[in-house]
Design a protein that fits this description.
Layout (H helix, E strand, L loop, with lengths): L1 H28 L15 H30 L7 E8 L2 E7 L8 E6 L7 E5 L4 E7 L4 E5 L4 E5 L6 E5 L6 E7 L11 E7 L1 H12 L4 H7 L28
Parallel strand pairs: 1-5, 4-10
Antiparallel strand pairs: 1-2, 2-3, 5-8, 6-7, 6-9, 9-10
Helix pairs in contact: 3-4
Organism: Phytohabitans aurantiacus
Function: Subunits I and II form the functional core of the enzyme complex. Electrons originating in cytochrome c are transferred via heme a and Cu(A) to the binuclear center formed by heme a3 and Cu(B).
Keywords: Copper, Electron transport, Membrane, Metal-binding, Respiratory chain, Translocase, Transmembrane, Transmembrane helix, Transport
Amino acid sequence: MYDLWIGSVIAALVVGVFVWGLIFWCIVRYRKRGDELPVQTRYNMPMEFLYTIAPILVVSVLFYYTAIVQTDVDRTSKNPDVIVEVVGFKWNWQFNYRDGIGTDANTITSTLGSSDVIPVLVLPTGKRVLFEETSKDVIHSFWVPELLFKRDVFPGSIRNQFEVSSIDQEGAYVGRCAELCGTYHSMMNFELRVVSPEKFDQFIEAKQDGATTQEALTQIGEEPLATTTKPFPTKRNVSNFNPGSGE
């Protein structure tokens, strides 16, 4: 998709330079030189042919490459290495690590976000990861900017799927909801923590042994809490709401 956007921008600039050149050429070539009217042309077949066929060709080329890229992006494998069920809800995330694809699969372990703790989604490098998305209420959108990709999370029986062939670089990446979903939409963040396959296996084992996500992260030598974002002060916790403070 990144290459498609770069190619589209380059093509648009080429067309833009051509059009701008024609505009300035007309300004200079046909500027007013007196009171005599220039020759009035009712139609120009070559020009009409050009501005009819050229846009069709441009749209056809863009459609062709878009279809190819979209097909490649939507392609999923039958046996991904990691399967994560993404559950969106007002206004947080739950990530379920699954043993198979579809609603009949079982959840091995999960991470649930709260108003006080940003959920951390842990994934390994170099593995094919399948995301299955669903929502408990309204439409949300799962977005990690560094992945250059996002996909809407729908309620009901619609389960969007997409697969990441491999994440090459370890690190912490902020994740966000990219669909306006209500009052605390802007605060509906999560963190993608990418670790080595060995650390990922240790993390899953620790979770299955009863450790919390924070405890499991500590056991594999990672920061227990999100480092790219933090909980926003909200009024969701009534005990922290002081009517006299104006907050």
